[in-house]
Amino acid sequence: MDGRRYGIYGHDWRAMPPLAWLEVLAGRESSQQIDYSAAPKTKATVVLSEPDFAEAIHEALKFYSRPNSLRHSPLLQSRLVIQQGGLQANDDERIAVLLEQLHGAAKTLESSPRDAKLYQTLHRTYFNPAASQELAADALHLSFSTYRRYLKSGIARVTEMLWHKEISS
Protein backbone atom coordinates (compact mmCIF):
# COMPACT_ATOMS: atom_id res chain seq x y z
CA MET A 1 0.00 0.00 0.00
CA ASP A 2 1.54 3.31 -1.06
CA GLY A 3 4.81 1.52 -1.77
CA ARG A 4 5.01 -0.04 1.70
CA ARG A 5 4.64 -3.69 2.57
CA TYR A 6 2.64 -4.83 5.57
CA GLY A 7 2.42 -8.22 7.20
CA ILE A 8 -0.80 -9.73 8.50
CA TYR A 9 -1.24 -12.35 11.17
CA GLY A 10 -4.45 -14.28 11.53
CA HIS A 11 -5.70 -17.27 13.43
CA ASP A 12 -9.09 -18.92 13.01
CA TRP A 13 -10.10 -19.53 16.62
CA ARG A 14 -13.22 -21.35 15.44
CA ALA A 15 -10.96 -24.26 14.49
CA MET A 16 -10.03 -24.87 18.14
CA PRO A 17 -13.04 -25.38 20.43
CA PRO A 18 -13.24 -22.82 23.26
CA LEU A 19 -12.79 -25.43 26.00
CA ALA A 20 -9.62 -26.79 24.38
CA TRP A 21 -8.26 -23.25 24.02
CA LEU A 22 -9.02 -22.52 27.69
CA GLU A 23 -7.24 -25.74 28.74
CA VAL A 24 -4.12 -24.66 26.83
CA LEU A 25 -4.25 -21.22 28.44
CA ALA A 26 -4.74 -22.73 31.91
CA GLY A 27 -1.74 -25.01 31.33
CA ARG A 28 0.39 -22.02 30.37
CA GLU A 29 -0.65 -20.12 33.50
CA SER A 30 0.13 -22.96 35.89
CA SER A 31 3.56 -23.94 34.55
CA GLN A 32 6.86 -22.15 34.22
CA GLN A 33 7.64 -23.57 30.79
CA ILE A 34 5.18 -23.62 27.96
CA ASP A 35 4.66 -27.08 26.53
CA TYR A 36 2.74 -26.73 23.27
CA SER A 37 2.45 -30.48 22.91
CA ALA A 38 0.27 -30.52 26.03
CA ALA A 39 -2.74 -29.30 24.09
CA PRO A 40 -5.72 -31.61 24.52
CA LYS A 41 -5.79 -34.46 22.02
CA THR A 42 -9.15 -33.95 20.39
CA LYS A 43 -10.25 -34.03 16.80
CA ALA A 44 -9.87 -30.61 15.26
CA THR A 45 -13.00 -28.65 14.56
CA VAL A 46 -13.65 -28.29 10.86
CA VAL A 47 -14.74 -24.86 9.70
CA LEU A 48 -16.74 -25.22 6.51
CA SER A 49 -17.75 -22.52 4.09
CA GLU A 50 -21.48 -22.07 3.63
CA PRO A 51 -21.58 -23.91 0.26
CA ASP A 52 -19.50 -26.80 1.67
CA PHE A 53 -21.75 -26.92 4.74
CA ALA A 54 -24.85 -27.04 2.52
CA GLU A 55 -23.37 -29.87 0.47
CA ALA A 56 -22.44 -31.81 3.63
CA ILE A 57 -25.99 -31.38 5.02
CA HIS A 58 -27.46 -32.68 1.77
CA GLU A 59 -25.12 -35.70 1.87
CA ALA A 60 -25.97 -36.33 5.53
CA LEU A 61 -29.69 -36.30 4.72
CA LYS A 62 -29.12 -38.83 1.93
CA PHE A 63 -27.36 -41.16 4.38
CA TYR A 64 -29.76 -40.56 7.30
CA SER A 65 -31.11 -44.11 7.15
CA ARG A 66 -27.55 -45.54 6.87
CA PRO A 67 -25.66 -43.91 9.76
CA ASN A 68 -22.43 -45.87 9.19
CA SER A 69 -22.07 -44.04 5.88
CA LEU A 70 -21.72 -40.79 7.84
CA ARG A 71 -18.39 -41.78 9.44
CA HIS A 72 -16.43 -39.57 7.03
CA SER A 73 -18.81 -36.61 7.06
CA PRO A 74 -17.05 -33.30 7.76
CA LEU A 75 -20.08 -32.39 9.88
CA LEU A 76 -18.85 -34.75 12.62
CA GLN A 77 -16.08 -32.22 13.32
CA SER A 78 -18.33 -29.16 12.93
CA ARG A 79 -19.17 -26.87 15.82
CA LEU A 80 -22.81 -27.88 15.39
CA VAL A 81 -21.98 -31.45 16.47
CA ILE A 82 -19.02 -30.89 18.80
CA GLN A 83 -20.80 -28.40 21.03
CA GLN A 84 -23.78 -30.72 21.40
CA GLY A 85 -21.85 -33.99 21.75
CA GLY A 86 -18.75 -32.79 23.59
CA LEU A 87 -15.06 -32.77 22.79
CA GLN A 88 -14.41 -36.35 23.83
CA ALA A 89 -17.38 -37.92 21.99
CA ASN A 90 -16.58 -40.87 19.74
CA ASP A 91 -17.78 -41.19 16.14
CA ASP A 92 -20.94 -43.12 17.08
CA GLU A 93 -21.96 -40.44 19.56
CA ARG A 94 -21.24 -37.69 17.03
CA ILE A 95 -23.26 -39.48 14.36
CA ALA A 96 -26.17 -39.73 16.81
CA VAL A 97 -25.90 -35.99 17.51
CA LEU A 98 -25.78 -35.19 13.79
CA LEU A 99 -28.87 -37.32 13.10
CA GLU A 100 -30.67 -35.63 15.99
CA GLN A 101 -29.75 -32.18 14.67
CA LEU A 102 -30.95 -33.05 11.15
CA HIS A 103 -34.25 -34.49 12.33
CA GLY A 104 -34.81 -31.71 14.88
CA ALA A 105 -34.31 -28.98 12.29
CA ALA A 106 -36.68 -30.71 9.88
CA LYS A 107 -39.23 -31.31 12.64
CA THR A 108 -39.49 -27.57 13.29
CA LEU A 109 -40.90 -27.21 9.79
CA GLU A 110 -43.83 -29.43 10.75
CA SER A 111 -45.23 -26.89 13.23
CA SER A 112 -45.74 -24.25 10.56
CA PRO A 113 -48.80 -24.79 8.32
CA ARG A 114 -46.87 -23.20 5.47
CA ASP A 115 -43.83 -25.47 5.90
CA ALA A 116 -45.55 -28.71 6.94
CA LYS A 117 -45.52 -29.92 3.33
CA LEU A 118 -41.74 -29.46 3.27
CA TYR A 119 -41.38 -31.60 6.41
CA GLN A 120 -43.64 -34.30 4.96
CA THR A 121 -41.53 -34.39 1.81
CA LEU A 122 -38.28 -34.62 3.80
CA HIS A 123 -39.81 -37.27 6.05
CA ARG A 124 -40.92 -39.46 3.14
CA THR A 125 -37.58 -38.99 1.35
CA TYR A 126 -35.01 -39.26 4.15
CA PHE A 127 -36.42 -40.09 7.59
CA ASN A 128 -38.91 -42.78 6.54
CA PRO A 129 -37.89 -43.22 2.91
CA ALA A 130 -39.98 -44.67 0.15
CA ALA A 131 -38.30 -47.04 -2.30
CA SER A 132 -37.93 -44.25 -4.85
CA GLN A 133 -38.65 -40.56 -5.17
CA GLU A 134 -41.47 -41.32 -7.59
CA LEU A 135 -43.14 -43.53 -4.97
CA ALA A 136 -42.59 -40.84 -2.33
CA ALA A 137 -44.30 -38.29 -4.59
CA ASP A 138 -47.20 -40.71 -5.11
CA ALA A 139 -47.50 -41.37 -1.37
CA LEU A 140 -47.68 -37.62 -0.76
CA HIS A 141 -50.20 -37.15 -3.61
CA LEU A 142 -47.90 -34.72 -5.39
CA SER A 143 -46.77 -34.40 -8.97
CA PHE A 144 -43.10 -35.28 -9.31
CA SER A 145 -42.12 -31.69 -10.18
CA THR A 146 -43.96 -30.34 -7.12
CA TYR A 147 -42.36 -33.04 -4.97
CA ARG A 148 -38.88 -32.06 -6.21
CA ARG A 149 -39.58 -28.38 -5.58
CA TYR A 150 -40.76 -29.11 -2.01
CA LEU A 151 -37.73 -31.35 -1.43
CA LYS A 152 -35.32 -28.67 -2.61
CA SER A 153 -37.04 -26.05 -0.45
CA GLY A 154 -37.06 -28.36 2.57
CA ILE A 155 -33.35 -29.10 2.24
CA ALA A 156 -32.64 -25.37 1.89
CA ARG A 157 -34.66 -24.56 5.04
CA VAL A 158 -32.97 -27.28 7.11
CA THR A 159 -29.57 -26.15 5.86
CA GLU A 160 -30.39 -22.54 6.71
CA MET A 161 -31.45 -23.44 10.26
CA LEU A 162 -28.38 -25.58 10.89
CA TRP A 163 -26.02 -23.02 9.31
CA HIS A 164 -27.39 -20.40 11.66
CA LYS A 165 -26.70 -22.74 14.60
CA GLU A 166 -23.21 -23.45 13.26
CA ILE A 167 -22.15 -19.83 12.99
CA SER A 168 -23.88 -18.58 16.14
CA SER A 169 -22.63 -21.26 18.53
Can you give a write-up of this model?
The chain is mainly α and 169 residues long. 26% of the residues are buried. The model has no long low-confidence stretch (mean pLDDT 86). The chain is 57% helix and 0% strand. The protein has one domain. Helix 2 (50-62) packs across helix 7 (144-168) and helix 3 (79-85) packs across helix 4 (91-110).
Features:
169 residues, mainly alpha, 7 helices, 0% strand
Give a concise summary.
With 169 residues, this protein is mainly α. It has helices spanning 18-30, 50-62, 79-85, 91-110, 116-127, 133-139, 144-168. The chain has one domain.
Gyration radius over CA: 21 Å
Using the alpha-carbon principal axes, give the shape: elongated
Helix share of residues? 55-70%
| Secondary-structure element pattern, one letter each | HHHHHHH
- Kindly state the number of beta strands: 0
Structural class: mainly alpha
Roughly what fraction of the amino acids lie in strands? under 5%
Mean pLDDT metric: 86
- Tell me the number of helical segments per DSSP (H or I, 4 or more residues long): 7
Largest sheet: none
Distance between the termini: 36 Å
Count of spatially separate domains: 1
Low-confidence stretches: none
